[in-house]
Design goal:
Strand content: 15-25%
Strand order of the largest sheet: 1-5-6-13-10-9-7-8
Largest sheet: 8 strands, mixed
Number of strands: 17
CATH topology of the largest domain: BirA Bifunctional Protein, domain 2
Helix content: 25-40%
Distance between the termini: 26 Å
Mean pLDDT: 93
Low-confidence stretches: none
Structural class: alpha+beta
CATH architecture of the largest domain: 2-Layer Sandwich
CATH class of the largest domain: Alpha Beta
Number of domains: 2
Length: 375
């Protein structure tokens, strides 16, 4: 389980903001569900029989309970309490679900494999004739989302029924056919992973390739015809009949921590400016320049930039080298010329900035702006 230091937690919050902006735009409502649920819930979901070894269990008085490894049952409970009709569907809800899985210690690997992590977990509850449209809409939103992080190549894999699964043959055949129909309309190549689906349904997985050529499975959408009947989740259709909705499980990161680890593997310390904990570092050359350096740093901060200053008595060359080693995208030098001109000298990775402080602050803010809007 991770300890979050300030810089790492800032990156965590930026990733959280990005996916929150995306699912809000897509019509999801954000919710929060309990960490601890009693055993009958996990028996109904199938996790106690299919995933018992991966759950942290404990006794709640005389009753067995478990920390949630997924948020699905909690979301079903919320929808069931609302007793929806067909007019309410599709219902789209999302949660930054902190989940726990009892992974073997030998498999743990930094942020890439944890026992506690955060899923950008979302579910769509819809009528059968809405399901393919919802899957297609999600799939079409995936590539633009990843492109904002610099990933232009997105592969797709269809994962089909595993040997150990719940549900009947007809439900699985229907769900797999629906996903194939969507892939047919989307066009393009896709891979297949026979037996790679979840125990409750087949899924599409979205695979990113990093600059080292490694593949990372991130997003997913899963077609589920199993859990709604098990939890007696129903809606009233147009004829007044009570029917089970289709349930779709979707995520873009999968694990927020793992996605962060993947970004760091892909970029190293040189993250895009909008993701850098420190976007601008202000360095006065000498003590005589510190007053203007402080004023300039304040102006940059008011422009919405994440600014730090380094007033140590080290040489300028050493401070600049340390800033570059820390991959700060913009280093602002303040000397006599900058004080006189009421400006800054910017050292940047790949851009040139000039003019007065106000113009530089505006241009830097534009260069560091999040593609998902302000946080």
């Amino acid at each position: 389980m991770a300890y979050w230091h300030p810089r790492g937690f800032l990156l965590y919050r930026l990733l959280e903001h990005a996916v929150r902006a995306h699912f809000t735009e897509q019509g999801y409502s954000e919710v929060r569900t309990p960490q601890l649920l009693r055993q009958p819930v996990w028996e109904a979901s199938g996790h106690f029989s299919h995933f018992h070894g991966g759950m942290f269990t404990l006794m709640d008085g005389s009753e067995a309970a478990a920390l949630k490894p997924v948020s699905c049952p909690g979301h079903i409970h919320l929808v069931r309490r609302d007793s929806p009709s067909y007019r309410d569907l599709p219902i789209r809800i999302a949660e930054f679900g902190i989940v726990h899985r009892d992974e073997p210690s030998g498999t743990l690997h930094g942020l890439l494999r944890l026992r506690q992590f955060t899923q950008d977990d979302g579910h769509i509850f819809c009528e059968p004739d809405q399901a393919e449209r919802e899957v297609e809409a999600f799939c079409r939103s995936v590539a633009p989302f990843y492109a904002r992080f610099g990933f232009e190549r997105v592969g797709v894999t269809l994962a089909t029924r595993p040997a150990e699964s719940a549900g009947d043959d007809a439900s699985w055949a229907h769900a797999e056919a629906a996903l194939r129909n969507v892939l047919g309309r989307l066009g393009g190549a896709f891979d297949e992973a026979p037996g790679g689906g979840a125990f409750y349904g087949p899924k599409l997985e979205f695979v990113l390739k990093d600059r080292h050529g490694r593949d990372w499975t991130c997003g997913t959408i899963q077609f589920d015809l199993v859990m709604p009947p098990r939890f007696e989740l129903r809606y009233v259709d147009a004829s007044g009949q009570r029917r089970h909705p289709v349930m779709l499980h979707r995520a873009l990161y999968g694990s927020l921590e793992r996605f962060m680890g993947m970004l760091l593997e892909h970029y190293g310390p040189a993250l895009p400016p909008w993701l850098c904990p420190t976007q601008v570092l202000v360095l006065p050359i000498a003590e005589a320049h510190e007053a203007w350096a402080r004023a300039a740093a304040g102006e940059l901060a008011r422009a919405g930039l994440r600014v730090a200053s380094d007033f140590r008595k080290e040489t300028l060359a050493k401070r600049v080298a340390e800033a570059h080693a820390a991959a700060v995208p913009f280093v602002a030098i303040v000397g006599a010329r900058e004080v006189e001109a009421r400006s800054l000298s910017i050292r940047a990775r790949d851009r040139h900035f000039s003019g007065g402080l106000e113009a530089i602050a505006r241009d830097l803010a534009e260069a560091c702006a999040s593609p998902f809007g302000s946080i």
